Amino acid sequence: MACLNKLSLVILSVLVLTASLASATQDPELKQCRHQCKHQRGFEEEQRQQCEQRCEEYIREKKHREREEEGYSRRSRESREEEEEKEESGERIEQNNPYLFEAEHFDTSVRTEEGRVHILKKFTERSKLLKGIENYRVGFLEANPHAFVAPVHFDADVIFFVASGRPTVTLLREEKRETFNLERGDVVHIPAGTPAYIVNRDEREKLFIVNLINPVYLPGEFESFHGPGGEDPESFYKAFSWKVLKAAFKRDRDEIERLFGQQKRGGITKASREQVEELSRHAEGGGGGGPIWPFKGETKGPFNLFRKHPVSSNRYGSLFEANTEDCKDLEDLNLMISFANITKGAMIAPNYNSKATKMSFVVDGEGWFEMACPHTPSEQGRQRGGGSAWQGEKSGKKFKRITGRLRRGMVFVVPAGHPVTAIASQNTNLQILCFEVNAKGNTRYPLAGRKNIVNNMDNVAKELAFGVPAREVERIFKSQNEEFFFPGPTQQEEGGHRAYM
Amino acid sequence: MACLNKLSLVILSVLVLTASLASATQDPELKQCRHQCKHQRGFEEEQRQQCEQRCEEYIREKKHREREEEGYSRRSRESREEEEEKEESGERIEQNNPYLFEAEHFDTSVRTEEGRVHILKKFTERSKLLKGIENYRVGFLEANPHAFVAPVHFDADVIFFVASGRPTVTLLREEKRETFNLERGDVVHIPAGTPAYIVNRDEREKLFIVNLINPVYLPGEFESFHGPGGEDPESFYKAFSWKVLKAAFKRDRDEIERLFGQQKRGGITKASREQVEELSRHAEGGGGGGPIWPFKGETKGPFNLFRKHPVSSNRYGSLFEANTEDCKDLEDLNLMISFANITKGAMIAPNYNSKATKMSFVVDGEGWFEMACPHTPSEQGRQRGGGSAWQGEKSGKKFKRITGRLRRGMVFVVPAGHPVTAIASQNTNLQILCFEVNAKGNTRYPLAGRKNIVNNMDNVAKELAFGVPAREVERIFKSQNEEFFFPGPTQQEEGGHRAYM
Amino acid sequence: MACLNKLSLVILSVLVLTASLASATQDPELKQCRHQCKHQRGFEEEQRQQCEQRCEEYIREKKHREREEEGYSRRSRESREEEEEKEESGERIEQNNPYLFEAEHFDTSVRTEEGRVHILKKFTERSKLLKGIENYRVGFLEANPHAFVAPVHFDADVIFFVASGRPTVTLLREEKRETFNLERGDVVHIPAGTPAYIVNRDEREKLFIVNLINPVYLPGEFESFHGPGGEDPESFYKAFSWKVLKAAFKRDRDEIERLFGQQKRGGITKASREQVEELSRHAEGGGGGGPIWPFKGETKGPFNLFRKHPVSSNRYGSLFEANTEDCKDLEDLNLMISFANITKGAMIAPNYNSKATKMSFVVDGEGWFEMACPHTPSEQGRQRGGGSAWQGEKSGKKFKRITGRLRRGMVFVVPAGHPVTAIASQNTNLQILCFEVNAKGNTRYPLAGRKNIVNNMDNVAKELAFGVPAREVERIFKSQNEEFFFPGPTQQEEGGHRAYM
Fold this sequence. Notes:
Keywords (chains A, B, C): Signal
Signal peptide (chains A, B, C): 1-24
Number of helices of chain A: 10
Pfam families (chains A, B, C): Cupin_1
InterPro entries (chains A, B, C): Cupin_1, RmlC-like_jellyroll, RmlC_Cupin_sf, Seed_Storage-Functional
Structural class of chain A: alpha+beta
Oligomer: homotrimer
Organism (chains A, B, C): Morus notabilis
């Protein structure tokens, strides 16, 4: 552990140095970073390689960031034009968007050669407007083929969604061991405190698991506890005194010390082909192996979201959903999980959830979302005062458009009641996984398309609400015949805003 | 919207101006306000009328406020005398009362010619002692005969109690529409996110609905969302970009723009007699129409509080109650609703709720309440420190009397465990609607009258607790034979304090 | 009340005076304190005696505190040596321990000649790391033989565990009275708002009751309400105005005033033998009287923890447990209660709770505990920032050892997921009562002994996790054959650290 920590320190100082070179181009920076790695005293060959790898990674990320920023300013130029157009038409866009999260909002909590774990910061650190989901965290695990994720337990309930790779997950529940061979689309609940380990049994595909984390003790905060382990990941056994460990294990200090000093390779390591086979051999089969899920209420353990019939599907997209009525685990967690695959160029009907608040993770593709937000800009960064509502003429309440470009790895939050839509780019399908909390009794209300709420109103209510004859309301609200996925705005509709796609 | 906003601004500046005239009597102030309305450039006739109306309303409110303040100082003189009397007798009164709310503690969230919605500010803005109910809001809706309240949904569960008028309420639940013709005493739950609209089908009586609001996302804060609407109430559809709206509706921008620009009359408008008839024609009938409610556990939808047998009734008053065992909706919300009609000159037995905290809304009449409060004065405005309890001699714990005059529209809060009583004036019945949260398993303990807790004690416990022979305890606690409503203090008892009645 | 308050003031000033005498030895201090009592004007004989008693008590406590501090500095010298030893071996100990509570962390809320009630301060006053249990309070009641605890209700659910004495507890539930003759090991739930009184029917043994308090209104804060009572404990009836009391009781003011002025002896008084007999005569019998508990789900009312078969027992200790599946009351409170009796010189297996957080009260004996804590020292006193977790190499996450000596009356908290062990001294059994909140679905995972989690892993996982062949892992993890209680570290193991035992 000590030497790894030293390594980290060296890399940090190297990076700080190189980052401070004002006009550094790619080569000089990387060159200097590597140079420092090479001439660091006390480094063995392996450490030197790691150091250099870290240099390259840093440079890659930096470049990516620069491109991002460039992209932003390009987009910002464009959106300025767009905004001008919109100001004419009286529209409002919210630039400062506390509901959208990118790479920079994640913390790295594990990073080894074989994989990494990134966790989104606490929602309430971003904005008081996210207080409603303060006890949730979102994250992901990415690991190489045949990577092994060391045994660990959390003081949190954790939901895994397998987006790619073929993980074998083992849970240690009291005296019995449960092993599941999972596939893409499988959802598994790791109850708080349950030790679990994972191996990616795929020898080609990377493992990508999206997590929802629901701490059981401190609001919005959780910790990992490695029992099996050594110096890295450090075992919590090492916190006990020697006299206690000797009595607990009935072994000598030397032996114990040796055992808990061996593992030094980090929380995600590489398993051999034989080890992978051994670990996955006795598995019970995941949610993808069984009959079409679910048998209402019976399900315990993993299930596959894609084995269920989609709740909505046409050639513009498909929506898969598992809710509190499908599965005991989801009921206990008051959670709904849905997956929308929006065909390229298509869109989801504007809609809102009646009770549930949605944390959406972009699993693949590109596009953008738009959300109507009733809060005033001044409220967005700080505690709101009175928060009065149902505000008509007096306060001049306005809905602002919250919008943001979406791509793989991004997260956006949609609070209960807020109308939202998502649109896939012209080039790729947009795939979004949603964790919807406070899900019990939730209804998804479509705001356009065949079953929209306005069609369902009395004619008189339509007239009174819109101030025009009912048939004029219907002309607008009954043209779209599709149900939940529509053809999206076409190229020509967007005018000069191709970049936005 | 723009012109209405301008109107608001003008009115505001007019009011500020007139309000600053130091020694203004009624006429000059009103005169100047009207004058400004008349000479405001760009106002059409209708706007001018609205402006003047607003002037009058402002003056009315100002006068009311002045009368109030006068009343306060008169009462304050009186209560000073009263206090002196009480100091002799060792009593303590708490003047600063965070449990009582008047008109000034409400925010206006809608106000049109046809009606208004007032919502009490967040409880925790008033005092940390109200933290236990921080996720609730109380409000009311008042509207003219034949007024129409535009379709809206909230990110909150909302309970309606009909105090007067005959509303027809329509809920849009997914694909079905539910319409109820309600009467006085009906209670209906609008689940979070459910679009609803209301028309007062009575052509003479004003509609008065008391609300309890339980936000589902942000603690103690909620928002209203108008889908159907135009410029006022503004539709949230207007927050989406044109390209999205065009794709969602499959219509041209011009058409869409026209539709969402028409409605400019505000969230509460007037319906014609024909429209009212049409809106109420297909109603299922409210809670007042069915057989005597409830059939235990079955009820879903509205019910009428007065159709149930009162849980307590004599010639001094009646108590109606619906609790978590009566109704699935109430169970889900962990809520109890009760209505006390205290005969003029009578009182409720001092009592406390074992678990539930009570938000009481004075629906009609006048009177006052008294509550025993264990908190020290210094705690009332700020966060309490240790909050130690069960305090005997060491800390010299005292109960303070929290008291306040009650009249229509006032709210008072009674925390769990706190002994309280309410007394009707000699002139009118006092009618109080109570929302009691954390209601599951609650017991109401009477502190005087036939079933009081002291009567239920062992004789030995009476002796030890009071330090006198049991029969002396009983002489006090067994004289009152009534059960929950008693004859109140009589005129002569009060001495010079008639005004307090 | 007035004179008692005066008494308190005098005692306070006397104590302040005497405490300020720099080099005071026992005699002079006590002497001066007594002198002041004697010469205080206006004191009657009884008050003078109380005053002197208080002096002696103060001196006793002061001496105790001094011995404690001495003990600390001795221990601190020792632990410095120990630390040095540990630094060599790379161990970390956390000196500042927010999880451990001693006498100084309790507030006295009642103290009379016959008994006292001490309540632990709010957990969040100590550390933000205790936020997960902020709505719980722990306390205890100690009273003499034949002491009577006056009728009282709380705005909190209260759990009583009888550690010694034989209390007769009476609950007033609406119109019926329930009386239970309890014994050591009995657990009873006093639901929020339920008036209760207690008499210790044992004529020799002191009553000692440990409390868990779960406020129903303000988070982590509760109050006591005495109805029956007079000046001390003060009755809340006295907060109502005379005109209200006269109407409520239909009696004259004089009579009422007399009744509520009699009781002046404080919340815990002495009952005569006849009164004790009368109070306990009609009891239903406690949890100890019935057949072996529980009949699953049926139990309502008291039960005896020791009547149940221990969930784990050998010659090194016994563990008794009642959980949410055993008892409706515990299920409603989401609570588990357990009692560990660790044989002298023995230890509990290191273990953790998967979901539940444990508040442990040392009922008897001495020893110490060790806990592995993942939080960094800087977090311990203040709000944590991001609280990222699952931290591997990058953040250099370390587990610290939280440790503390245990003796009767101390409390320690073990959050969910945290590995912990407790060790009895060589001289006495260590008896610990645990309230475990968030208990539903909790599993206790042993980290050593026959059923430890590592034994349950695949061999391949053992190899990958520890970086050594599986048989080497097993050599350590399979030597200890006992299940939950082990022989503890022996005298010789500890070297020079006897004092720590």
